[in-house]
Amino acid sequence: MEEGLRERKKRETRLRIADVAMGLFMIHGFDNVTVAQVARAADVSVNTVFNYFGTKEDLFADRQQEVVDLSSKVVRERRPGESIVAAFRRDFFDALETGDWRYGMGEGAEVFSRVVGESAALVARMREVEHLSATNLATIIAEETGAGPDDLTPQLVADQILSTTRLLARHAIRRKMAGEQWPEIWTDVRTQAAGAFDLLESGIGGYGRRSLAGEAGEQSEAAEDHIDGDHG
User: Fold this and answer.
1) Is 3 exposed, middle or buried (0-12, 13-18, 19+ CB in 10 A)?
2) Mind listing the pLDDT tens digit for each residue in 105-147?
3) Cα Rg, the chain, nearest whole Å
4) Is the dihedral of CA 90, 92, 97, 100 positive or negative?
5) How many CB atoms lie within 10 A of CB 182?
6) Is residue 145 within 8 Å of residue 219, measured between CB atoms?
7) Full-model pTM
8) CA proximity to 103, closest of 92, 114, 112
9) DSSP count for the chain of H helices, then E strands
10) What are phi and psi of 231, to 5 degrees?
11) Domains, in order of start, for the chain
């Protein structure tokens, strides 16, 4: 259905407020900016801001749902013959090569990280986003693989993959904050990421492999043995 004029204007207003707020937060720090200042800069009332955003943290985390949904998209769109780990490996390196923000390593990532680190409220919010992402990813993995409600494997796989990508992103951001240049950092992250995904693939690489017919594959015997700890 085509978006109506009213809906489009509301979406544009929300986006403008969020963009203005983020700009102020990046310059002055989250705790040093009030909702009233955001409203003035966006040329709206404080009430209008709260009509779109329930809290000040919501202003900062305007793309939260998009972030939470990103990993699920990788699983759902994995290619025929591709496992869940392989799909994330491909997507991670694509983001790295293109400078896309989806794994937290785009342009300005170090500024974003600094602002979060300076605010206890934002640190808590980002932990919440990480939890939601892992829970959502586990749900999608369970759906794709047909795992039962008492099967912990989807959550284990989700936690391992997301912990790996977060660790790589934080490694890159720490180096950037130390004054290194992105080209040098990216070279190192490529190497570190290759090793990290090799380790993941040695353990859970066969899990959730999509069949060549396009259907979700069953968990491989090797992955079952690794996860269950039955190594003889």
Assistant:
1) exposed
2) 888 899 999 999 999 999 999 999 999 999 999 999 999 999 9
3) 20
4) positive
5) 17
6) yes
7) 0.83
8) 92
9) 11, 0
10) -100, 10
11) 5-60 (1.10.10.60), 64-228 (1.10.357)
As a whole number of angstroms, the distance between CA 146 and CA 215 comes to: 11
Whole-Å CA distances, 117 to 21, 169, 174: 17, 15, 12
Q: What count of residues does the chain have?
A: 232
In the beta sheet, which residues pair with residue 216? 210
11 to 23, 98, 122: CA distances (angstroms): 18, 28, 24
C-alpha torsion sign, points 125, 71, 226, 219: positive
Helices 5-28 and 35-42: crossing angle in degrees, nearest 10, is 120
15-42 confidence digits (pLDDT tens): 999 999 999 999 999 999 999 999 999 9
Among residues 122, 154, 117, the alpha carbon closest in space to that of 139 is found at: 154
Three-class SS of residue 220?
coil
Q: Are 81 and 211 in contact (CB under 8 A)?
A: yes
